[in-house]
Specification:
This protein has 371 residues and is mainly beta. 8% of the residues lie in helices and 32% in strands. The strands form six sheets. Strands 6, 7, 9, 10, 11, 12 and 14 form a seven-stranded antiparallel beta sheet that branches. The chain folds into three domains: 18-111 and 119-134, no CATH class; 149-251, no CATH class; 270-368, Thrombin, subunit H (Beta Barrel).
Length: 371
């Protein structure tokens, strides 16, 4: 939400996704239903404008914006196809059913639910799908992270093909230059070029989780190694940084339209912020952080986590000092500081976009499933 911003720069980019996909929100008991309450001063309606997101719109009505799939009443069958919302449409708050809708309450449109109530859902447009539809989150902020390598394990690092020489002995290569590569291509012809970056360590155990990968550009196979040789010839298709000998290759992932439906993790998850992307000490709204939990811990794309500022350990000045003049220490409670939206998941590391923050976020801060 724009009114919580605590930091300066935004990550630049281009590309829009639209609509809603991924896993549905499950009715997870009374605690989740309480968290999806409407604001006491929620408006009766909101006119959608260009630049809106489903998260922003829902924040005008809900105490917790990530609950929007539940209050739209989406189910598994419906989310197989995108539900589009466009600028100029009106989102209504149907107070009788506790739902958001694109149909005016009492208009008679909608579908009858199993208990006889009328549940009103977003409408589907067949023409121009996706061209103007609003996105579920500020997708332009995370687009660069979706198709570029972020995490390289030690095992992947060891096996990744390497650039061993450049065309005509060049130290640094540019677009259309040839690069000579050694390594197993496994039948792949398009690769991204990366350089191992910051090692990500678990803030609690100091165990190495993986390496962040610095994206350099892309290459395409020009000629495979001939018999008796293991040197392949590639041509640089693009570069965003200097590419040279020693840089490594990872297969180019398929380009996919990604849409997101926020939901609590299917299992209770607790972890810590492992890194702030771009190497700064603190992060805030609309910035990206990594956490020390991933698919192996039950996280998936669209999972929402609460952020907590780690409580300080302080001296209890009200307690009696011992014979050395020292007082016992106490740990203050962790304080909730924001909301994190998980958009890319690896086995033991995930990346999230900070959707709201009231305090700067730093390495070691706690992340938990919504309460």
């Amino acid at each position: 939400m724009k009114n919580f911003s605590t930091v300066s720069a935004r990550l630049a980019v281009a590309a829009l996704f639209a609509g809603v996909l991924a896993t549905p929100v499950q009715a997870a008991g009374a605690a989740e239903r309480r968290s999806c309450e409407f604001k006491p001063n929620a408006p009766d309606q909101h006119v959608v404008v260009k630049g809106d997101t489903l998260w922003d719109i829902s924040g005008k009505f809900l105490a917790h914006p990530w609950c929007w799939p539940q209050v739209w009443g989406l189910n598994k069958a419906e989310i197989k196809n995108p539900h589009w919302i466009y600028p100029g449409q009106i989102v209504y708050f149907d107070r009788a059913t506790g739902r958001l809708s694109l149909n005016k309450p009492g208009s008679g449109s909608g579908m009858a639910g199993p208990n006889g109530t009328v549940r009103l859902s977003p409408q589907i447009r067949n023409e121009g799908l996706g061209s103007d539809a609003i996105s579920s989150i500020p997708s332009e902020l995370i687009e660069p992270f979706l198709t570029r390598p972020l995490i390289i394990s030690a095992n992947e690092l060891e096996k990744a093909p390497r650039i061993v020489a450049g065309q005509e002995g060049k130290v640094f290569l540019g677009k259309d230059d040839k690069a000579y590569v050694r390594g197993d291509l496994n039948g792949v012809s398009s690769f991204q070029v990366f350089r191992p970056g910051t090692p990500l360590k678990d803030p609690k155990t100091d165990k190495l989780l993986a390496y962040e990968a610095v994206y350099l550009g892309s290459v395409k196979l020009h000629a495979e190694a001939k018999a008796g040789s293991d040197i392949h010839t590639f041509v640089l298709a693009s570069s965003v940084q200097e590419i040279g000998v020693g840089d490594q290759l990872v297969p180019q992932p398929p380009t996919a339209l990604q849409n997101y439906m926020p939901h609590p993790p299917l299992e209770s998850v607790e972890g810590n912020v492992a890194g702030v992307y771009s190497g700064v000490k603190y992060a805030g709204q609309n910035q990206v952080v990594s956490i020390n939990r991933g698919a192996l811990d039950g996280l998936d794309v669209g999972a929402v986590m609460q952020l907590y500022t780690l409580g300080r350990t302080v001296e209890d000045r009200t307690a009696k000092a011992n014979h050395f003049g020292r007082r016992p220490t106490i740990k203050l409670p962790d304080e909730e500081s924001g909301t994190l939206f998980i958009f890319r998941v690896f086995p033991n590391v995930s990346y999230g976009l900070i959707m709201q923050s009231t305090q700067p976020v730093e390495v070691g801060d706690v992340v938990k499933s919504p309460e």
